[in-house]
Write a structure and sequence with these properties.
By secondary structure, the protein is α+β, with helices and mostly antiparallel strands. It is built from one helix and three strands.
Length: 71
């Protein structure tokens, strides 16, 4: 979740980490990279990433918990 310059990471419906970001997310026309720092594949993540979702609004913690329990 990205809201008011704070990035929050949720794992199984529970917030696992949060950090204030000094950089705004640029929603331009560039590709999105999941598991790598850039689209060219630099600094790859060697592990599993599943159930990634994008929403056009910020979800509440309750909504995130409900989505997590529905899987």
């Amino acid at each position: 979740v990205y809201e008011n310059a704070t990035v929050k990471i949720y794992e199984d419906g529970t917030m696992a980490a949060n950090k204030i970001s000094m950089n705004a997310i640029n929603w331009g026309s560039n590709d999105i990279s999941i598991g790598a720092l850039t689209a060219s594949g630099s600094e790859n993540w060697f592990g599993e990433i599943d159930e990634v979702a994008f929403f056009n609004r910020v979800l509440s913690e309750e909504e995130i918990q409900i989505l997590s329990s529905d899987r």
